[in-house]
Amino acid sequence: MEKWEYLTAPLLIHNTKMILDTFGDDGWELVTVLPGANTEQLVAYFKRKKEQ
Fold first, then answer.
1. Closest by Cα among 23, 14, 18 to 47
2. What's the mean pLDDT in 36-48?
């Protein structure tokens, strides 16, 4: 059975691509993006396979 680990991270609107590329390079897959506490912030949810 595969095991997963999860991460949430703030996603600033003016720097979105760089932030997503950085997490992708570290093996994180973007699951969804939802609104944050204010209009200038989003929250990104990621997952990746847990190393056995």
1. 23
2. 89
Give the integer Cα–Cα distance in Å for 5 and 3.
7
Contact present, 47 and 4 (Cβ < 8 Å): yes
| Tens-digit pLDDT profile for residues 12-39 | 878 889 989 999 999 999 999 999 888 7
- Number of other CB atoms surrounding residue 28 within 10 Å: 19
**What global pTM score does this model have?**
0.84
38 contacts: CB under 8 Å, gap ≥ 6? none
Contact 8, 47 (CB under 8 A): no
As given in the structure block, the two tokens for residue 42 are 């989003």
13 in helix, strand or coil?
Answer: helix
